[in-house]
Write a structure and sequence with these properties.
By secondary structure, the protein is α+β, with helices and mostly antiparallel strands. 48% of the residues lie in helices and 13% in strands. It has eight helices and four strands. The chain has a four-stranded antiparallel beta sheet with strand order 1-2-4-3. α2 (23-39) packs across α3. The longest helix is centred in the N-terminal third of the chain and has 17 residues, at 23-39. The protein is globular and about 45 Å long.
Length: 147
């Protein structure tokens, strides 16, 4: 609400196009993407699945299913404002242009994730993706040992 109110005070009319999604809704979105990719007839199911994973999170892995992500309607001026200001409210642009190899997802200028104000400030200052930020704290080779 604070982010939306700040955007309004800055003269924008922010409109959310997505927030929380159930697993069933995420599955339908993924299936719809697959159907669209396969409709052209030029892709195999495996090729379509690889492309679909870059566009839509696999069901069970979506930040929307966690309730941590929101998508804003496409508006270039608002998106510019959000890139500069969302971090003040604990949100980061989740899939910035040029981050595809780091995030495993296509660029999405409308998708923001809540990470908390402290983390958002650090991520913004570093001009980093969430993956780059988390790599400072967690290693792929880390092991959890139960005693």
């Amino acid at each position: 609400e604070e982010l939306l109110n700040a955007a309004r005070q800055a003269g924008f009319t922010p409109r959310l196009t997505a927030g929380y999604r159930s697993s069933a809704e995420q599955q339908e979105l993924y299936d719809e993407t697959m159907r669209g990719l396969l409709a052209g007839g030029s892709l195999s199911e495996n090729e379509a699945a690889e492309i679909a994973k870059m566009r839509v999170a696999l069901p069970g892995t979506s930040e929307h299913e966690l309730g941590l992500a929101v998508d804003f309607a496409e508006d270039a001026a608002l998106q510019s404002w959000l890139r500069d200001n969302a971090w003040h409210y604990g949100f980061i642009l989740r899939y910035p242009a040029g981050s595809e190899t780091l995030t495993g997802r296509e660029s999405d200028p409308c998708h923001y994730r809540y990470v908390g104000e402290a983390a958002a400030e650090q991520i913004h200052a570093m001009n980093a993706t969430l993956e780059e930020y988390l790599s400072l704290f967690y290693a792929d080779s880390a092991q959890v040992i139960f005693q």
